[in-house]
Design brief:
Helices cover about 35% and strands about 10% of the residues. α2 (about 85-105) runs antiparallel to α3, α4 (about 145-160) runs antiparallel to α5 (about 165-180) and α5 (about 165-180) crosses α8. It has three domains: about 1-75, no CATH class; about 85-325, Hypothetical protein af1432 (Orthogonal Bundle); about 330-380, no CATH class. It is α+β, with helices and mostly antiparallel strands.
């Protein structure tokens, strides 16, 4: 820990309701809790997760600040523990808050965005080592609407972090990602969201113009739903409204061009483009035990973002997203489309979606062996 007294106390002496008078850092020197953080049950759990010892002089009985804030957290969770097992209470709290928001939207009650924002803060910190390439390992048992919303949320927050945005903007990005499809409630009101909208499965190719128009109106419906809440950031509302706009002006619902699209909407657009279900039609890239529109190869998703950067998505932000997501993958295991298992040994900067794979004693350069595809990625830990 940096700039903190050396005297330590046992965590059992902490009392809920106390606040920190100084920041708390992880063992690697990264900020975990800012000054003024209120001691809650979640704080106790995170101290255990990151194996942090709290200093006595960091405690105060002054309950002035009840908000939870973090810095740009980089420490990974203990490698001996499963990420989803540790993170499950936190994403479930986000999901519960999200469902409460949906109930409020239906009933016209006051929506507690501050609660969801606080839970997103903890959620992003617990998943600080999240990579979009591992998305098939997260939230697999949830209905598609909720799973997609959580994935777009965490990916938007991570991309905002990679962009170097401050904490408040990262939380806005994560909240906008969570809410981006909320306008679909005006089209479909099933609270469990088990049935996909026709547009999500490509069923409008036959010329169902009426349903296509309804689908393309969902960003505006979402914005209309959210604009009544004055305490919600305008940036979040605009990101919901504009997340299907394209740099070339061919998006919807407003046909905006690049310079007119809000920066937060550009972040959510990339995250949504990466996670949206209607990506590929080839069944060989799907795990048949899961919904085949969800379990798409992450490298195929990434390649789709790369192609969309020419006209649809923000090109610089797309390049940053691909670079950050595909770098530092050396050592991770992969499953190829022919069901051989291998290890990533090198990611060429010029073709980051086509890394080199070691299979037994053979090195396969996917940039030249274009008939070979990565079907799945497993993180090293």
């Amino acid at each position: 820990m940096r700039n903190l007294p050396n005297r330590e106390i046992n965590q059992s002496l902490l009392v809920e309701g106390e606040t920190l008078t100084q920041p708390v850092y992880t063992r690697n020197g990264n900020l975990l809790f800012e000054k003024g953080t209120k001691i809650t049950r979640e704080v106790f759990e995170l101290l255990d997760v990151f194996q942090v010892t709290v200093m006595e002089s960091n405690l105060s009985t002054n309950p002035a600040d009840t908000s939870l804030h973090t810095g740009n957290e980089k420490e990974s969770l203990p490698p001996s523990k499963n990420k989803d097992t540790i993170g499950e209470p936190y994403w479930k709290e986000v999901l519960a808050g999200f469902k409460q928001l949906i109930d409020c939207f239906h009933s016209g009650k006051l929506a507690a965005f501050s609660y969801v924002r606080e839970k997103l803060n903890t959620f992003l910190m617990v998943y600080s080592d999240y990579s979009p390439l591992y998305c098939n390992h997260y939230f697999g048992n949830l209905p598609i609407f909720y799973r997609h919303s959580l994935l777009v949320s965490i990916t938007s927050g991570k991309l905002a972090e990679w962009q170097g945005l401050p904490l408040s903007d990262r939380l806005d990005a994560a909240l906008a990602g969570l809410l981006h499809d909320i306008g679909k409630l005006a089209i479909k009101t099933n609270p469990d969201m088990n049935q996909r909208l026709p547009a999500a499965t490509g069923q409008f190719r036959g010329g169902d113009q009426q349903n296509q128009a309804k689908y393309e109106d969902h960003p505006f419906k979402g914005y209309t739903l959210l604009k009544q809440y004055s305490h919600l950031s305008e940036a979040v509302k605009l990101a919901v409204l504009q997340h299907h706009e394209q740099a070339n002006g061919k998006g919807f619902p407003l046909n905006l061009v690049s310079g007119q699209i809000h920066p937060l909407a550009r972040i959510v657009a990339i995250a949504n483009h990466y996670h949206e279900c209607k990506l590929m039609a080839q069944p060989e890239y799907f795990n048949e035990t899961l919904d085949k529109e969800v379990f798409v190869s992450p490298y195929l998703r990434m390649d789709k973002v790369r192609k969309a950067a020419f006209g649809e998505l923000d090109p610089e932000l797309s390049q940053l997203f691909i670079h950050k997501a595909t770098s530092m993958q050396q050592g991770n295991r992969v499953l190829l489309d022919d069901l051989r298992e291998g290890t990533i040994v090198f990611t060429p900067p010029t073709s980051p979606t086509r890394p080199w794979i070691k299979v037994e004693d053979q090195i396969i350069d996917l940039a030249t062996e274009k008939h070979v595809m990565i079907r799945e990625v497993w993180p090293l830990n």
